[in-house]
Write a structure and sequence with these properties.
Largest sheet: 9 strands, mixed
Strand content: over 45%
Oligomer: single chain
Order of helices and strands: EEEEEEEEE
Radius of gyration: 14 Å
């Protein structure tokens, strides 16, 4: 199942540098259908009453994302998976980019 997530009321902050996703067997960088390397980004998702952490995969290296960088996540999708009796949820986005903060 693939579910789009409305991120309007959520703020995101990176929890570290983007890391390349490696193929489990060959250890080579994983590529998406268009040939871009896939990266995983650990994020804090923050809303008024709580927060959570998640790892989001994105095609192409997110530029300017480091420790505790406020980011914008575009077209976040949650997908369920089931492999050999194990199951869970994975997250994918079209883009993760730093938010340009403005002075008040």
């Amino acid at each position: 199942m693939r579910l789009p997530i409305d991120t309007v009321a959520v703020q995101f902050m990176s929890a570290g540098l983007a890391e390349p996703v490696l193929d489990f067997e060959t250890r080579a960088p994983k590529l998406d259908a268009s040939g871009l390397a896939v990266y995983s980004v650990h994020l804090f998702a923050i809303w008024p009453d709580s927060y959570d952490t998640l790892t989001v995969k994105v095609a192409g290296e997110p530029k300017g994302v480091g420790n505790f960088t406020p980011v914008k996540v575009t077209n976040l999708i949650a997908s369920t998976w089931d492999i050999g009796g194990d199951h869970g949820v994975s997250f994918k986005a079209d883009k993760i980019e730093p938010v340009k903060l403005t002075a008040n």
